Amino acid sequence: MPLMLPHLTQLVTDVDGAWAAAIGGLDGLLVEGHAAADTDLGLLVAEHAGLMRVANASYSDTLGDVNPRELYLRGERVSVYLHPITPDFFLLLALDGRSNLGQARLYGRAAARGLEAQL
């Protein structure tokens, strides 16, 4: 697990507007995380794991055996980008209002590929 933290720290550094990155399980548990702001990453992962489970179930029910490749939730001041790493784990990237979604997607996919072998 110690090799995961550098990926997450670098992701927050590389993506404009990113303030946290975490690996979560679909069971809602935080595996590893890095935050540049004071936040409860465990709670953030738990809440978004539920959204990932619902998205997976919805896509599976309506489109057959299809799972979302990424999920982006945008709020007024905060956004969250989610990218599956394996069927049981996902990458969460928390972004502020000045974030760059293109960077989040590009660097998030690369980080997910790098983390997949470690899970």
From TrEMBL:
Q: Which InterPro entries match?
A: Roadblock/LAMTOR2_dom
| SMART domains attached to this UniProt entry | Robl_LC7 (SM00960)
Roadblock/LAMTOR2 domain segment(s): 5-95
Q: Which Pfam family is one of this chain's hits?
A: Robl_LC7
Q: What is this protein called?
A: Roadblock/LAMTOR2 domain-containing protein
Q: Which organism is it from?
A: Deinococcus aetherius
